[in-house]
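Form 12-C: Joint structure prediction
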Amino acid sequence: MDGKCIQEDIKKLKASSVALCTSSESVRNELLLAIAQGLHRDWEIIQKANEEDLRKAHEDNLKESLVKRLIFDQDKLASVTEGLKQVATLSDPINKVLEKRILDEDLLLERVSFPIGVIGMIFESRPDALVQIVSLCLKSGNAIILKGGKEAFNTNTALMASIKKSAEKSVLGNSWLLLLESHSDVDVMLKMDKEIDLLIPRGSNAFVRYVMDHTSIAVLGHADGICHLYVDEKADLDKAIECAYDSKIQYPAACNAIETLLVHKAVASTFIVRMAKRFEEKGVRIHGDAYTCSLIDCIPYEEGDYHTEYLALELNIKVVENYEEAVAHIAEYGSHHTDAIMTEDKQLIARFLREVDSADVFANCSTRFADGFRYGLGAEVGISTAKIHARGPVGLAGLMSSKWLLVGSGQVVSTYTGSKAKGFLHTEMSTDGVSLASGDVQ
Amino acid sequence: MDGKCIQEDIKKLKASSVALCTSSESVRNELLLAIAQGLHRDWEIIQKANEEDLRKAHEDNLKESLVKRLIFDQDKLASVTEGLKQVATLSDPINKVLEKRILDEDLLLERVSFPIGVIGMIFESRPDALVQIVSLCLKSGNAIILKGGKEAFNTNTALMASIKKSAEKSVLGNSWLLLLESHSDVDVMLKMDKEIDLLIPRGSNAFVRYVMDHTSIAVLGHADGICHLYVDEKADLDKAIECAYDSKIQYPAACNAIETLLVHKAVASTFIVRMAKRFEEKGVRIHGDAYTCSLIDCIPYEEGDYHTEYLALELNIKVVENYEEAVAHIAEYGSHHTDAIMTEDKQLIARFLREVDSADVFANCSTRFADGFRYGLGAEVGISTAKIHARGPVGLAGLMSSKWLLVGSGQVVSTYTGSKAKGFLHTEMSTDGVSLASGDVQ
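Section 2 - Result
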């Protein structure tokens, strides 16, 4: 597609987002189920497309880990259709009452949740992510522009064709979702800040950084995951070893895996020797400061190591004088993603939770818990290290904005201003129950 | 100051924001009171500076309305110091528990409020706004970069010098606040997206648009306020006339004043004739469509009128066929700020509240109610028409981000993954009570 064509498609998509925003819960849920059925209906086409992608991946000698993520087989189909059905059962995120206040007699204010509008999502390789993203956007009433990895081009195209076919039969139509094909399409999208309300890039850090640097649209995401675990002098060393091990080993390529282990000097000799043995089982490469190198066999620290996101079985170990040095190190080198302390000192835990300014601040557990599913958010749309809108693992709530509703009986502001101004009541009300927008207007 | 110097000041400010974020409530409240005292202490200097600004304003033949906003007299002093004391009594916005969930035995998750970090605020003319902004940022633990209008240069400089003098004696020091002097300083600031987390421009629409177009930092604000009032066929016409009158007259230069009155054709002849008489008292200029022009003496509609924010005693009147045409007009020409319907049809009210995608959607009251103080938000930091972070009138909550806290007893993720994965409890807890960061760790 050429740039002009994409622009027009995105404008059309924005126009169709209005109907989506105000559509009923049942219309959206029915379409979710229809999409699930449709994927089964079109399974043969999807399967063939995926085989083509896998054939090409082998031809291009793609890394085994990437090829694995590309596979869209019967199991994946079962899992994404199960996901669609689950999302359909979630409560409607639109028109939830978030605040409610009586301003004056017969003058009732509400803040209710409302879709953000148009979301741009860029993801890599995994075709199942496409279905998941579409389902969350549909549920939350957001129009969606998608760009998947080029390795999954055929699978994504087949999935999108199936979804569009199902959507066509719904009153919502199918112009609220769009699959971009090329990198140059993405560049067109990054410039359309009038039409697009939020970008969610998922993929390599370099790519997320590229998106952040080339758009003025709000971005929900994180470019780096330089996470730390600090082992305090009052740590339970058995727990510390297990948590440090899990934080590095459980999934080394994850953004919430640690890159640097900070160790209080009082426990350094005992802890580091034991820890190194444990890491050795997995062949973890350790970059150590001078003290660490005096205790174990490791790679001496080099400039830049503390800024490196290894995303592999590799990490730094640094011995610190005290708690303050650990926190200062995290502030200087961390990416404000996820940082943890191991200590039995409860006052120090509270201090760490207060003083460390990261999206996720933990005590006595693995950094790998920083995740929407583990947090109980239902679905995860991404992890954000921005301070605006949403921070840390973001669930469906991250796809919602809000609006203020005010229903009166002819009130005017001049009554409440000037020397004889009437006062407001400002009585806080429970947010339980239906919104003013639901039809039951008092 | 040259650009390089400003850059260094902003970097220093960012560094000092860390201490501010984690400062205790009492330290921040004491400084708020000290600033109030300090303004009285330095009153003579501030008064002289303001006289100088007023002298220059008269010399430059500034509009009377602008000169009025410049005045910083004993009354303004009393009002801003009263404001400082009031802000000191507000509950601490930092470390409020927003969500709380038991993930598993001895594994407790909390989401708590936390300062955004560094705010850039650009405002015009009114020097009292400077004190108000500093007080809200200090209370909420945010470092603040300010740029006031050049007409208030001397007053702002004197106020800032007094505030800095008071802050110097606090443990917080005074490098967390900075006053920019020139437009070129603002341009330097707009580029510092690594240091600044949020911009809040208050001022002319043209200026806000300039800011939005020249930065990749998140902006809380609105460039336009094209607001509508739709008088439905089932409207109570007495109420409709009062609400329309208030929506235009009460403060015509406000962003939430209406620019276009939409009238259902069934009530057009009665309503428009009566309304025009009412507007005539105040000399309101009416731009009417053909139907309106056939009923009253007015300026015939010209291309572009519906896109014009008059900000004066001037508005459009347009007759519509039905509700749908009114809503379509609002969607096409509105700025998604504040739009209202007048009708006694309760189902139609609910439909309007659902279908209109504006920051503030009203029924049977004046659009002028769209305001933080009237909404009962305590203080207003701005009105946003963005869909991200905050929308509509924004209180102190708009200056807050959040972080996730997780406290365990040595848990690792590998326990909860794989074929023998342990399940999570995900038990929702009440958010009453103190945060894990307060020191009472279970």
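Section 3 - Comments
Chain B has two domains: 3-96+115-220+393-398, 227-376. Chain B has 15 helices and 17 strands.
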